[in-house]
Design goal:
Blueprint: H1 5-17, E1 29-35, E2 37-41, E3 58-62, E4 92-96, E5 98-101, E6 106-109, E7 131-137, E8 151-154, E9 171-175, E10 195-196, E11 207-212, E12 216-217, E13 231-232, E14 256-257, E15 260-267, E16 286-288, E17 300-303, H2 310-315, E18 320-321, H3 332-336, E19 350-352, H4 358-363
Parallel strand pairs: 1-18
Antiparallel strand pairs: 1-7, 2-3, 3-4, 4-17, 5-6, 5-16, 6-19, 7-15, 8-17, 9-10, 9-11, 11-15, 12-13, 12-14
């Protein structure tokens, strides 16, 4: 993510004041840290626990407790390593993969690449695939930290069109307008020209996904049958991402403020910009591993797994970026060694099939 000049100037002042980019007291916290790829696999312990394979492929980061099923327990006690820079974050985060569908009917996985350098965070620029995770708190005791066993889902894998006024502030794609992150000048999902809820319709110098989770909780249930009903957005609706706020007042049904989580994934689409390879009708060529060629079905899964009170300490510590005096870190080589074995043996880099339904094609990729 790129920030406006005014915001970057303010953050630079904070960085100069404290080497860990923390500013303590009642000031807000914005953790921004990289996580390397843990595994690419067709399993989903949240939506389809025990199913082998699950309906579609996912790319996963975080702790090595990730499995076909994950118990409603303290995941931090089950995992022994993480692909994230903060060693105390053994949570798991996962999304669908993106594929390029060529005119000849073949599919190729779009690779994920490391994010840009911000806040002197070298780790995030050197990850092996994976993506960036954000946690936001408006200030000390401004949110209630997640509890062991907490999990949630945002987005709908089956959505294929805009609903109502849309959900662009919760899920968007940014089309970089040139190399070196050109056009990355606004907060996530805030650029009226380069951010869309659907896949971009023009060639891009890379595409960035942003997925934002709800910030209100019912205060009782760690999960719900649909993995959504126990959380909600503020009364006024999802707030724009600022890096310092979690939105307005919560509804009475979900009165407890929780941290704002956002996932940020950079897809290297530059190798697919030859429009001669795009569909003959000129439509955009990218498709999620759910079979969704619109992008409206972008979604993200989360299973909490921070050790002890580590997340609470960070959220109350006024930390900024990927360096926080209250958290332990590892180097990217250590993170890249954390892996889990694939449970479904299949070729997920790419494939070519005869004319079948789009979902069937990807279901076999």
């Amino acid at each position: 993510m790129h920030w406006s000049l005014q915001v970057l100037t303010a953050f630079a002042g904070v960085a100069n004041a404290a080497p860990q980019f923390g500013f303590g007291g009642s000031r807000s916290t914005m953790l921004r840290f990289g996580c390397s790829q843990l595994v690419i696999d067709r399993i989903d312990p949240l939506v389809n626990p025990g199913s082998l394979p699950s309906p579609h492929l996912h790319q996963v980061v975080g702790g090595n407790a990730f499995n076909v099923s994950m118990p409603n327990a303290d995941i931090a006690e089950l995992a022994t390593c993480t692909t994230c820079s903060f060693t105390e974050d053994l949570s798991n985060y996962w999304t669908a993969n993106v594929y390029f569908k060529a005119r000849n009917g073949s599919y190729k996985r779009v690779p994920q690449i490391p994010n840009r350098l911000l806040f002197n965070d070298r780790f995030t620029t050197e990850t092996d695939g994976g993506f960036v995770v954000y946690y936001v708190s408006p200030g000390q005791n401004g949110v209630t930290p997640f509890r062991p066993g907490f999990r949630m889902l945002v987005g709908d894998a089956n959505q294929r069109q805009k609903i109502g006024n849309g959900k662009k502030s919760q899920s968007c794609f940014r089309c970089y307008s040139g190399p070196n992150w050109r056009g990355d000048d606004a907060a996530p999902c805030a650029d009226a020209r380069l951010d869309t809820e659907h896949f971009p319709t023009q060639p891009c110098s890379g595409i960035r996904s942003n997925i934002l989770y709800p910030t209100c909780w019912d205060g009782k249930n760690l999960d719900s049958p649909d993995h959504k009903s126990h959380v909600a957005y503020p009364v006024a609706g999802p707030a724009a991402f600022t890096g310092s706020s979690v939105g307005g007042a919560c509804p009475s049904t979900h009165p407890v403020k929780i941290p704002q989580i956002m996932l940020e994934i950079v897809w290297d689409t530059t190798q697919f910009n030859n429009k001669a390879d795009w569909p003959e009708d000129g439509s955009q060529p990218f498709v999620l591993s759910t079979g969704d060629n619109t992008g409206y079905g972008q979604h993200g899964d989360y299973v909490f797994g921070w050790k002890g009170d580590s997340l609470e300490r960070a959220l109350n510590g006024g930390c900024m970026g990927a360096s926080c005096a209250n958290l332990k870190v590892q180097n990217v080589a250590q993170a890249n060694r954390c892996k889990v074995s694939e449970k479904v043996n299949e070729q997920w880099e790419g494939c070519k099939f005869s004319l079948l339904s789009q979902f069937s094609l990807l279901d076999r990729c």
